[in-house]
Structure formats: C-alpha cells, structure tokens
Write a structure and sequence with these properties.
By secondary structure, the chain is of the alpha/beta class. It is built from 12 helices and 12 strands. The protein folds into 2 domains: 191 residues, Isopropylmalate Dehydrogenase, CATH 3.40.718.10; 140 residues, Isopropylmalate Dehydrogenase. The protein has a 12-stranded mixed beta sheet with strand order 3-4-2-1-5-12-11-6-7-10-8-9. Strand 11 and strand 12 form a beta hairpin. It is globular, with a radius of gyration of 20 Å.
C-alpha cells in the first residue's frame, strides 16, 4: 500500500474563487489527504452562498484528513474579517499571509508533506501596507533559502524562470552569472529530486531577439549567458542554448527536452499558458518543502457564482502528491 500523503491547501484571497475551489474538492472521493488552511466560518459562508452541502471537520496534526464525498478537513486560521465574495478588503491581508505561514511551517515541521496554494491578490495585500511580491518570494524568505525558482508545468511542457516579478527595464541587470548559475543548478537538481529525471536536458532561452544575433541585438548572451552555461556544462549539467525564444518553443527543440529556462516572466509563461491554461501548475523549486499552485488569479468576477473551473487546482494537488512521494523516496535513498 502506498504511503499516506497529506497536503496543506491554502484557500487564498477570501473575496476570490479560492474558497469555492477548495469546497469543490468535497464533490468527489479523494485519494490524497488534503487539509484546507482557512477561516472555517468563511468557508461555511461561501458554501452557504453556493448552496453546497459540505461538512467541515476541524483537523489536528497527526489525524487523518477526511476524504469522503461531502467532507472536508479544515485547519482554522483566525483573522478573516470580511467574507464577501468579489469584494476585496485590506483587513483580510494579514490573515491571508497567516494561512501561508501556517501551511509552510506545517510542512517544515512534518505535519504536511507539501502545500498547495489557491490564488492571492497581491494588490490588496500591498494596499494594506504589507510589502508582498508573490507566493514565491514570501516562501523563500519564510524558509530561509537564498534562491528559489518559479516553474510552471503542464503534462507536456515545463518552463522555469531566471527572473520572476521584475519590471522589464530591470531584467537585463538582474541576469548575472551568479543568478543564472543558482537557477540552473536548482532546476537541474529538483528535476532529479521531484520528477525522477536522471539526467535532465534543459533548453535555455537568450534574452534578446534572435539570442542577440551575434551581438548585433545585445551582448548579454555573449558576455553573461553563454560563458555561464559553458561553466555549468563542465559541471555535468545538460544545457542547450542560449536559443532564440521565438523558436525554442517548437517541437524540433522541445520533443526531447525536459524543461525550458526563460530569462523573464513574460518570455516563457505566455507560451505555456496558451498551451495549457487551466490545467497547468505553478511550482516553486529550491525550497526544502513541496509547493505547487494554480496557474490563475483570484477571478473576482467569478467569485460566488459557482462557475469557477477547478481543473488547475486538481492538477496542482496531483503534482504536489507526486512531488511529495518523490521527495520521500529521495530522502530514503540518502539514508
């Protein structure tokens, strides 16, 4: 019998679709244990709004999560002031971050095997006077690691990023040999640890059009990217590139590759989301814990309507379970 996996699921922004996506899990029997980290009264209010008959069970560490139809295990977090679907409230911002802290610390302490996150609203958190650039950076600081890597994945494609939430004008200066080395090393190692790929093949995009066209369209490829990739190849990491981003994402290159590494957010993610939006998963690499997330935002216009699609959440849970099992196996091999 497979070892039990327990995942923490943060419900995200209370005004968004996250709470109802969590409640939707109770519509069917589940194979993996899921504990929703949220305000229990908020979840009950959303269930009432949608006419969902869901029994919310309080969960304690060490107990088995409920998996039956119509049942959901909840680890209650205080501080959710407003339950109104579709209407943001800055007073909820601290509560939202507290759910992330509870989930991450639970993973670090061994209560959970991984965490899955529903979408938060960065704007309202910052409007509350709390500096917040995203889940990825928040968990990096909480876990005390120097570098993390954002990767989105579908069944057919994995795309990791050298830089994440930066203005485009700041990207070139941020692509340093040190950052590129750290990101490529983490990506290579975690493809092995979490996905069981013995020798990953990674395609690397150039920064400039046509990968700089021999220096005529920019020198970042010549001065930074190619020398760094050559050094990493000497360490045994299988890297191809820098390649022009407009042709990298074609079957000719992708068919025998395990991941693509893009230089900035909107270089790689539009391709992946066009290819698989609604069934993709956001993964944070470089953490000592498993973290996956949905590939979409809070969708305030859909909140409370019952029309939100839970496909990406199901994918995030499935991938989170697979990563947690791979991590357990890797740790066993080390011992």
């Amino acid at each position: 019998m497979a070892e039990e996996i327990v995942l923490a699921l943060t419900a995200g922004e209370p005004a968004g679709i996250g709470p109802e996506l969590c409640l939707e899990l109770a519509a069917a029997q589940r194979d993996v244990g899921v504990v929703v980290i949220a305000s229990q009264p908020m979840l009950a209010a959303r269930a009432g709004l949608l006419g969902l008959d869901v029994k919310l069970h309080s969960w304690r560490p060490g107990s088995a999560p409920r998996k039956g139809v119509g049942e959901l295990s909840v680890l209650h977090v205080e501080g959710c002031i407003s339950h109104q679907a579709g209407e943001l409230d800055t007073a909820n911002s601290r509560y939202v971050l507290d759910t992330l802290t509870v989930a991450a610390k639970g993973c670090l302490e061994g209560d959970f095997d991984g965490m899955v996150t529903a979408p938060v609203h960065k704007g309202v958190i910052n409007e509350a006077g709390i500096e917040f650039s995203g889940h990825t950076e928040f968990l990096q600081e909480l876990c005390g690691v120097e570098r993390v890597v954002m990767m989105l994945a579908t069944e057919e494609l994995r795309v990791a990023l050298v830089t994440t939430h930066l203005p485009l004008k700041d990207v070139s200066a941020a692509i340093t040999p040190e950052r590129l080395t750290q990101v490529a090393t983490i990506l290579n190692a975690d493809l092995k640890t979490f996905f069981g790929i013995a020798q990953p093949k990674i395609l690397v995009a150039g920064l400039n059009p046509h990968a700089g066209e021999g220096g005529h369209l920019g020198r970042e490829e010549i001065d930074v990217i190619e020398p760094t990739l050559e050094t990493l190849r000497g360490q045994g990491i299988q890297l191809v590139g820098p390649l022009p981003a407009d042709t990298l994402f074609t079957p000719h290159w992708l068919d025998d590759a395990d991941a693509a590494l893009a230089m900035y957010h909107d270089q790689g993610l539009p391709v992946l989301k066009f290819q698989g939006f609604g069934r993709a998963v956001n993964i944070t690499l470089g953490l000592p814990i498993v973290r996956t997330s949905v590939d979409h935002g809070t969708a305030l216009d859909l909140a409370g309507t019952g029309k939100a699609d839970a496909g990406s959440l199901h994918t995030a849970i499935r991938v989170g379970e697979q990563m947690a099992r791979s991590l357990k196996s890797a740790k066993k091999r080390e011992t």
